[in-house]
Amino acid sequence: ALQKAAFQSGILLPVLLAVRMGVLTTKCCSLVQSYYIAALLICGVKALFLLIAAGIASRGSITDEHPRRYMPGLLYLLVFMEVATVAVAVSGTVLLFTELHVSNDSQWAFLFLAVVLLWLDIFLLILGTALVGVKSAFTTDVDAHRRMWHRRLRCLRCNCLGLNNMEWVMEDLAALLCEARAGSQMLVSDLLAGFAILSHAQKGDLALQDLDKVCPRPPALNTGRSAFAPPAAALGDVVVRLEVFAKYFVAAYGWPMYMYMHCCRWRCCGPLMCCCRPRLYQGFSEDTGAMRHSKHTRALMLTAEIKDPNDLLLVSFKNPVFEPSYFIALDHKEKAIVVAIRGTNSLADVLTDLVAEPVDFELPSLGTIQAHKGMLMAAQRILAEICNVLQRAAEERQDYSVVVLGHSLGAGTAALLALLLREGPQGKAFAARVQCYAYSPPGGLLSHNAVQHSTGFTYSVVLGADLVPRLHIQNIKWLLDQATVYAYFCRTNKNRLMWQWLWKCCCCCCCAPAPPVMATGESAQWTQAAQRYSEHQRGLQEVGEQLKKDRVALYPPGNVVHLKPKSDGGWDMAWTDGPGLGEIQITMPHMLRDHMPDRVLNALQGAVTGVPGLVEC
Fold first, then answer.
1. Do residues 231 and 559 touch, judged by C-beta distance below 8 A?
2. 318-363 pLDDT, tens digit each
3. In 345-472, which ranges are continuous DSSP H helix?
4. Neighbours of 542 (CB within 10 A)
5. pTM attached to this predicted model
6. Is the dihedral of CA 230, 232, 235, 240 positive or negative?
7. Residues of the chain with pLDDT > 70: what percent?
8. Which residues of 147-170 are buried (b: 16+ CB within 10 A; e: fewer)?
């Protein structure tokens, strides 16, 4: 409502400018003057009603709807105002193309701007209605919910993403979102408010009475680490190896990451601004792809400290869906052939992340495993492209290891690529030399049997409260369940909760907000919240019976090193596994910031050199 009110104020701008510049004079046609007055009244009244709607909508709590009882009547008034807006837009269009009513160019320009803004307002309303749908989003009909999400996602089918012949991608995404949201009576804002309350609960600022009875902890989270055993490799040696090759995953992000990490070099004479000079690329072979991505290649060489162009065997910064950017380079100091894969950096990469359906895959020595569908497809496509180059390089350098690495999406793709190289025919000649280093890998990547198989050659590192490595299905369900429970039993206004949470994130905890007020046992509020939550659970159970499928639990690959900064400086390093990372911690902004490539690189460098840990706000 606030956004719509601001847009209505923007529509008033041409009218006010016309008055201020004297365009509306006595020489102006009376019809045009009447049109401006009508537009001024309609937009002003709509802006006022929208502000009132925003105020009413912010009253009460998630389950206490009585303070918002006037909202339906106000919405009917807004529908009437939209009809009046259409009438004003049509009349303005008629005046605009009738030359007798416009005496000069200034009048025509202001009239044109006002009409265009009115039609844009109507178009946005129609688009929003088409995306949301006229049926309730709280339906327990799974098919109807899936069709609704498919309609919302259809706008992503465009040539730039290469989805013209990939209708199944939209269907998979719609099914995933349907499974997550179908049957739920929670709005997105309700869940955000629940996350804000949960952040207080995780810090111990508040407690919900009988939480274990209302929302019991899933058994998988209690018993997930029963089979965990620390690897035989020395922890310090593994961290050193992770730090040595960390520069390559940062280099895979190309020139944007280089400029971000070297902002003092944003000068016209900086090292990237001269990338068009032919002399910089005289040593490159045409089939490496370096000439087609000159700025990325220059930044890559600077970040990875590659001196000789001949050490860069292959560069690919093309980025369709299911094919993240990557490069192959030689590291003579470590005697390694490095395959570095970039993490999420585009909308195409986001779609690769979201195609997260577990898919069965056969390995000769292990049998059937389950893996992240989007990242498995990315690994298979990259393998098909680099197979010949990698085989030739491995044959020429028999004493070199093959190191496959990446960050985030690149880490998941690298772990699967390493599995394919060690188990498939393409890497048969050098399978024993393949190693994988996964930096901040995704949590929902491999099934438990595949994770155990990969511990012999895959090492992952997770920093602090990083969200992405904890995103496996048990953690996500448990997080949503907790947020839902806290949202239902909270008595504090949800808009106040979200504003306080955002203020806390922006101000870096300089002023901690007061904990929210929770309903207490044996009270009317508790009874009402418990009843509403029971209705919510019944809707989820109906959807579960229709879906009739249990997702396979997927975890981060290989042996996991968890780096945590100590309060007195330095780093706390420990072996762990996917379930051992614990629950998702709602600690903004650390849960997102600890996933950033430059922060992971700095943490590894500090852990190796003994530099004190990153300061936590």
1. yes
2. 888 899 999 999 999 999 999 999 999 988 898 899 888 889 988 8
3. 347-354, 373-396, 409-423, 448-454
4. 15
5. 0.79
6. negative
7. 69
8. ebbbebbeeeeeeebbbeebeebb
